[in-house]
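Teaching note: in complex prediction, the entire set of molecules is handled at once rather than each chain in isolation. The prompt given to students was simply: 'Predict the structure of this complex.' The entities are:
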Amino acid sequence: MTTSDWAQICALEDIPHLGSRVVRAASGDIALFRNEGRVFAVHDKCPHKGGPLSQGIMHGDTVTCPLHSWKIQLDTGAAIAPDVGCTRRFDVKVENGQVLLKA
Amino acid sequence: MQKKRLVMVGNGMAGCRTLEELLRIAPEMYDITVFGAEPHPNYNRILLSPVLAGEMTVQDIILNDWDWYRDNQITLHAGRKVVKIDRIARKVIADDGTEAEYDRLLLATGSNPFILPVPGKDLPGVIAYRDIADTDAMIEAAATRRHAVVIGAGLLGLEAANGLALRGMDVTIVHLGAWIMERQLDKPSADMLQASLEKKGLAFLLEKQTESLIAGADGRVSAVRFKSGETIPADLVVMAAGIRPNTDLAEKAGLYCNRGLVVNDTLQTYDPKIYAVGECVSHRGIAYGLVAPLFEQAKVCANHLAQYGIGTYKGSVTSTKLKVTGIDVFSAGNFTGGPGCDDIVLHDPSGGVYKRLVLEGDRLVGACLYGDTADGSWYFQLIKDGQDIHAVRDHLMFGQNHLGDVGHKGQTQAASMPDTAEVCGCNGVCKGTIVKAIKEKGLFSLDDVRKHTKASSSCGSCTGLVEQILASCVGGAYQPANSTSKPMCGCTDRNHGDVRTAIRERHFIDIPTVMRELQWTTPNGCASCRPALNYYLTSTWPHEAKDDPQSRFINERAHANIQKDGTYSVVPRMWGGLTTPGELRAIADAAEKYKVPTVKVTGGQRIDLLGVKKDDLPAMWADFAQAGMVSGHAYGKSLRTVKTCVGAEHCRFGTQLSMSMGVKLEKMLFGMYSPHKVKLAVSGCPRNCAEAGIKDVGVIGVESGYEIYVAGNGGIKTEVAQYFCKVSSDEEVMEYAGAFLQLYREEGWYLERTVHYIERVGLDHVKGKVVEDAENRKALYDRLLFALQDYKDPWLERAEADRKSELGREFRTIAIREAMKA
Ligand code: SRM
Ligand SMILES: Cc1cc2nc3c(=O)[nH]c(=O)nc-3n(C[C@H](O)[C@H](O)[C@H](O)COP(=O)(O)OP(=O)(O)OC[C@H]3O[C@@H](n4cnc5c(N)ncnc54)[C@H](O)[C@@H]3O)c2cc1C
Ligand code: SF4
Ligand code: FES
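The expected output is the structure of the full assembly:
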């Protein structure tokens, strides 16, 4: 992959601290999360029953799914034990206050 | 920074639990070294009984395997016994010469079995029952020998005898006392237990004092002789005559011991660098011999080792359960009674049931159950909480199911359920799955079971049943959480009450401050504590604490109810269940315009539009605003509905204008957030067509005014509302209901419905503050009105908000456009 695969999505400030935004991509919705200066991107589908992770409550580098409270590790997309499952993660970075996503 | 060094001596249940707690809250703080005399990783000692009985294997009962120590970078010296503590050089020395220096030392050396000082006690074939080696020795003896004698008919002795009998030995139990398990049972229940054990083939010799153990020709034990002169054959003798705290090491090191290594309420010994937990400890003069209190000690000790310094251990009430399959015995607290106590006794010898409850005034202080122990954990909870049982005294003996409950809480009894029976209806979890998880994963608490199986983690109505299953699997090790002092969540050791008080007294107005000042152990809390904190802050400091949308569950953030497919449902308010052709038209139009798949009349007298896309919400709300309609808050921990009946406006029986009263109440309470959702109803006469009897506040019109009822609930477990007071005017209804709800808002814990709040604080407390104290009632009412002042319809606010603003962007998705590719 080349660097040109990075798409500029929005300003860091457009995502609330401990909150999320949904990016509508051809491959399906991607949930962007932010904790202070850190940004995470995962497929907006919970490995449990497909709940929209973007709508959950975020804490640290995890999000609690709004439907049945599974906790998903955002940097890997993996469900936290004892639950088992994984959702796809995407590369994301912040440059000059802009959020760039490789999707 | 150089890590501190923590050395633990004793690789048993209490010590390892302390390490687990410590790793959870301060994973980076210590370099940990563990010495264990046994050549095994930490295992579940209490399950040695099922191992002996052939129901489990040693492999099944490992709690922390070798990998656990490695993964947590713990240096484990298994099979090495520490023989000396050098307190000056701060190091310990093991029997093979291994040394380890410490900054903190944790002693968890457990206890030693008490061996009767009789001639022959050292003969081969004479053992205690304490560890895997003893269990193996018993299993081996059972395979080749015939006569077993168990000395001591306590919990341990009976479990040993049962296991040996199941392995085919002829077992005689010898006991000094007049009845068996006299420390846990009274005579009638002990007699019943003895009879059923005799049916299983065990023989008993009571009031017999052992004089000596006699060797046979092969030098092994061959018989037991009593003071009375009799002799009985014995190829195996198991001493189960009690335990003594193992303080040898501590005493040699000069630490103060007095029937146990003496510790204070933070589990610290007389040497401030040395902590101790478990059976080796004497706390306020008591050395415990069951794991539940030891786990409580572990939690407190870990907290102090982590230098958080919160929490003290104040002693425990214990309960015991015999782990012999097919026999149910339970006892807790002071089960013998005495002066100033009342006994309630049920004794059915042919039915095989005995129950004795001991009361002191209005509190339950002890319970002893035989045959039917299903309510054991409930009684234990009542004992531990010191709850006032005055109101339920008549029913107490018949158990929790008899408290006028039509919910499905524990209707089926755990023990008699087949493995395939569904326990948790929400998550579809069967009994077998729960039992398997408890055994394989070594679970002890309700929280553990919730985490691993999901049972009881949703609506919670099966909690009682799950507790029963836990109790039946792990026996006395099961410690129901102390409902009044339970920590809010895993991020803190403080309970809801403490946090609320701190927020009020220290005038905290934002979440980061609360977390910092109250030493939260996680950086941003979790999905349980953040919504609770947000509620406590905004309800304690209205107009001052700023609402944090990211700490609200999605429904309250999006002001609509999330559905299983990620769409939302929209329920506009219909004040008092009344509507107009104009409103109905607006609903019909919106349903068509936004292609709403389902339109439904709810159980709350209004209309639900289900399956709305999130992006469409603001536009739909703008349309509703046009028709003068506002949010119904069908999603919030807030005022939901005020149901009404037609009342004196139209009904031939109506005594009061219930529709108008309901609308007044609903308008007054519009936008009121509360610990949990709040529902009201107003009926025009005692026929009560609005079902006011199962609402948080129910109002019933009578000729001379209104009767007010509180704390009803129509949900998971139906609870009938309780009579609160009688008033004569509409204004009084608003003031009394308002003041009651404000008190609940101020004192209720997050996610506690009014019924549970009142269960906790008592109806008298609430009446005292609202009905009997006019000045306080007015003050409460004023605070409510102040909090609700200037509340703006959240739908309108969002419909009007700019798409880019914080309120608006919640509903906007971002499209990836080719042009934006960098
Ligand atoms: C829409 C409605 C069912 C219906 O179609 O009629 C409904 C739907 C839900 N109820 Fe309910 N309840 C509805 C009336 C009731 C009633 C009847 C009533 O209000 O008169 C009750 C029993 C009365 C009571 O609450 O005491 C009721 C007791 C519950 C409970 C159990 C509460 C309890 O404390 O025991 C829950 C679970 C909870 O809140 O934790 C719940 C939770 C829910 C939730 C919000 C579950 C959720 O969190 O997603 C459901 C949303 C469904 C969805 O997909 O949108 N619902 N629910 C009713 C909306 C009424 C309204 O107009 O606002
Ligand atoms: C068969 C059986 C059934 C039981 N059933 C129940 C029950 O149903 N419910 C219940 O609540 N409780 C039950 N118990 C009691 C429960 O197991 C104990 O209360 C609990 O294990 C005590 O924990 P501990 O950590 O204090 O001691 P232990 O678990 O005994 O751990 C102490 C460890 O320290 C080691 N040690 C001692 N001295 C040294 C030293 N100098 N150097 C290195 N290592 C040392 C010992 O070898 C031992 O491994 C049962 C006990 C037995 C034996
Ligand atoms: S609407 Fe209520 S009763 Fe029906 S499934 Fe949902 S929560 Fe259960
Ligand atoms: S869909 Fe996420 S927890 Fe069930």
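Point out the following to students. Chain A touches chain B through 42 residues (CB under 8 Å). The pocket of siroheme (ligand 1) is lined by residues B 561, 563, 569, 571, 600, 602-604, 606, 608, 634, 640-641, 677, 679, 713-716, 753 (CB under 6 Å).
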